Amino acid sequence: MRDRSTIAGQIEQLVETLGGAPICDDCITDRLDLSVRSQANAVTRGMEGEAAFVREKGRCIDCARNKIVVRMRR
């Protein structure tokens, strides 16, 4: 578990809050009001290797576009 005060911690908390629903880096950037998308991308790429998370092609819960998303593993 990451420190919730960091960007990585905030992203992890957001993904956990969605309870398995997929979200893309662009929508993470918008929801957390990050300055650049690359911040979200760097974190979600790192989450890809963790047992609790999946990063894959799918439909984003926010923008409804098919793109690379991250979600909690079910």
Task: Describe this structure in a few short sentences.
By secondary structure, this protein is of the alpha+beta class.
Molecular structure report:
- By secondary structure, the protein is an alpha+beta fold.
- Helix content is 39%, strand content 22%.
- The chain is built from 3 helices and 3 strands, in the order H-E-H-H-E-E.
- The chain has a 3-stranded antiparallel β-sheet with strand order 1-3-2.
- Strand 2 and strand 3 form a beta hairpin.
- Helix 1 (7-17) packs across helix 3 (37-47) and helix 2 (25-31) crosses helix 3.
- The longest helix has 11 residues, at 7-17.
- It is globular.
- The chain starts with 6 loop residues before the first helix and ends with a strand.
What's the helix and strand layout?
Layout lengths: L6 H11 L5 E2 H7 L5 H11 L5 E7 L6 E7 L2
Antiparallel strand pairs: 1-3, 2-3
Order of helices and strands: HEHHEE
Widest sheet: strand ordering: 1-3-2
- Number of beta-strand segments: 3
Shape: globular
Mean pLDDT: 93
Number of helices: 3
Regions with little confidence, pLDDT below 50 for 5+ residues: none
**What proportion strand?**
15-25%
How much helix is in the residues?
A: 25-40%
Structural class: alpha+beta
Alpha carbon gap, first and last residue: 18 Å
Work out the radius of gyration: 11 Å
Largest sheet: 3 strands, antiparallel
